Amino acid sequence: MKLNRLFLIYFLPLIATAQIPPKYIFPINPSHTQYLAGTMGELRRTHFHAGLDIKTGGQEGLPVLAIADGYISRISISSIGYGRALYLTHIDGKSSVYGHLRSFENTLESFTLNQQYLKENHAVQLFPLKDQFYFHQGDTIAYSGNSGSSSGPHLHFEIRNDKQEFLNPLSEYPFAEIKDEIAPRLVYVAFKSLDAQARVNGAYGTYLYKTIKKNNSYTLASPVHLFGKIGVEISHYDLMTGSYNKHGIPEIFLKINNETVFHENKSAMSFAKNRDILVHIDYPFARKSGITLNRLYVAEGNELDIYDKSNEGYFFNNTPTDLEIILKDNFENISTFNTTVNQNTMSPKSPSLNRFDVDENQLHFVTKDSLADIYINGYHSTINPYLSKQGSYYYLWDLRDGLPDSVLSKELLIDPKFYSAIPSGMEYSFHGDDFIIELEPNTLFDTLYLQFEKKHDNVRNRELFRLNDESSQLRNVVTITLKPDNNYDDSYQVFSVSQNGRLNFVGSKRTDKGYFQFTTMDLGTFTLAQDTIPPIIKPISWSSRLIKLVIQDQLSGIKSFRATIDGIFLMMEYDAKRNLLTSRPLKTNTPITGLYVIEVVDFFGNKTVIEKKL
């Protein structure tokens, strides 16, 4: 029988299309409206968020579905991070990731539990054989939970390409379950001086301006005058229909005089470059003010490849200049900002300085005197202020012209404690009387103006070693060796000291000369301290069906734990955020009987052991 030609032309494509399933389905309760607590590319303190955080209504145990056919390529269990997580590799080469799970599908759960007992460890990284665990689109692979470093029940969901870059799921596939009719919000616009001649309303520094909404567009409430090489920065967020959470914005444009000078598009990002967020945002400003500013220019050392158009700052002269900022969210909702700078001559602002600050390559300081002397290696230069305001005089010194030993005026003495200008992109070590610092070629984003100071805290009887401060940006670890004045036995290790004096364990090893050596990705203040207090174990349940314990350590933290029943390993699941251990026998519903022993050890080797006959 011959089919009608018109039938073939018009209806066969429709039949074929109807038989093709969607590329991806939503991983939780598809075809029903869902809400997000987080989106891909959001600005976190030291990284970009890698996927979607899907709300589960405050519940655990919702079925998590395979978004497409694929095999389990990795199973991860940790007390932190993604907690219980699955990695599903698909036939298109991409993979999907499901984190903070409560439990896995039965065959996966059984396989994982057996591996945990085989390795005698709660935390495992497993890589099953290809097709050992194969799932079809829509199959239940797990159940949602709150494991790892989750702040509440939800599903962390990612899509990655074959390079293991994380993709924006909302641009990779337009999930109809997510609704958004709300345009992004622009909270602040900031202008930053990027060289010694640059001025914002006549002053050097970073200046923040609150936006106002006017005629469906954002603008500034007050006029601004810019001169020289200036960086534009913004504070922003996005809201989504039915959700109060503040989300990231994937696409941002900056236009100056109608020319696009910056275009950021976070559609795919590399885990290897995730720490470049420290130069994508104005990290020093964020540490000091608590406000995160997204730079609309590319700072020194920024290797992110999310910029379709970029600049290293824009040079403003004294003529009126139009600025336009466009924010576009994942659902094409758009907000705009428009202003014209340099329409009026402005009275200079007073920079916000206590005494001095190191900003980019500049030493910025203030005094009551109209002249100041810079001393370098026995020589001195008298410099003039760049600004005087209400009896205060503001100065700039370019650190590329030399590192001052001191700055002196009639009423001011500054000892900035500079030791070295460490260039980026090369292996470097500095050996001082009280410390050694060693850097690999990929450690720094930009030149580090190394400052060091050693003090004695007589109240707490501590030696304090300050290397720059917490706002310093490091791409990779540095190795630091501390040379204390006092004698310490092997019961001491290195701790960092927060601004409120709290100690945070870092750890260290002793060198042949008895110095303390450690690695860190954060500079700041360090000290040497002991931890002689063993961990605490608080029983919650001693049932033969369920053992629950709270474990805590007051100083250095929990390093390890191990439980046995009559000398045979008993797995305890560890929820680090709740300090909770929960028994998990190899055979479900098997009573736990015999002599139960739990041993908990901290990072100093202090040990607590409890025995209980069950």
Task: Provide structural commentary.
The chain is mainly β and 614 residues long. It is built from six helices and 52 strands. Strands 1, 2, 3, 4, 5, 6, 7, 8, 9, 10, 11 and 20 form a twelve-stranded antiparallel β-sheet that branches. Strands 12, 13, 14, 15, 16, 17, 21 and 23 form an eight-stranded antiparallel β-sheet that branches. Strands 34-37-38-44-40-41 form a six-stranded antiparallel β-sheet, with no helix packed on it. The radius of gyration is 29 Å and the shape is flat. It starts with a helix and ends with a strand.
What proportion strand? 35-45%
Work out the oligomeric state of the chains in this entry: single chain
> Separation of termini?
78 Å
Pick out the low-confidence regions: 1-19
Classification by helices and strands: mainly beta
Helix content: under 10%
Shape: flat
Radius of gyration: 29 Å
Helix tally?
A: 6
Average pLDDT score: 94
The number of E-state strands comes to: 52
Largest sheet: 12 strands, antiparallel
Features:
614 residues, mainly beta, twelve-stranded antiparallel beta sheet, eight-stranded antiparallel beta sheet, 6 helices, 7% helix, flat, disordered N terminus
List the helices and strands and how they pair.
Blueprint lengths: L4 H6 L1 H8 L16 E3 L13 E4 L7 E3 L4 E8 L6 E7 L4 E10 L1 H14 L4 E3 L7 E2 L4 E5 L9 E7 L5 E2 L1 H4 L12 E9 L5 E2 L5 E9 L2 E4 L5 E15 L2 E5 L3 E6 L2 E7 L2 E2 L7 H4 L2 H7 L4 E2 L11 E3 L4 E3 L4 E8 L5 E8 L14 E4 L2 E6 L4 E5 L2 E5 L3 E3 L2 E7 L7 E3 L4 E2 L3 E5 L5 E4 L3 E5 L8 E10 L4 E6 L10 E5 L9 E6 L5 E3 L3 E2 L5 E5 L3 E7 L5 E7 L4 E6 L5 E8 L2 E2 L2 E4 L4 E4 L11 E8 L4 E7 L1
Antiparallel strand pairs: 1-2, 2-10, 3-9, 4-5, 4-7, 4-8, 5-6, 6-9, 6-10, 10-11, 11-20, 12-14, 12-16, 13-16, 14-15, 16-17, 16-21, 16-23, 18-19, 18-24, 19-22, 24-25, 26-27, 27-31, 28-29, 28-32, 30-31, 32-33, 34-37, 35-36, 36-39, 37-38, 38-44, 39-43, 40-41, 40-44, 42-43, 45-46, 46-50, 47-48, ...
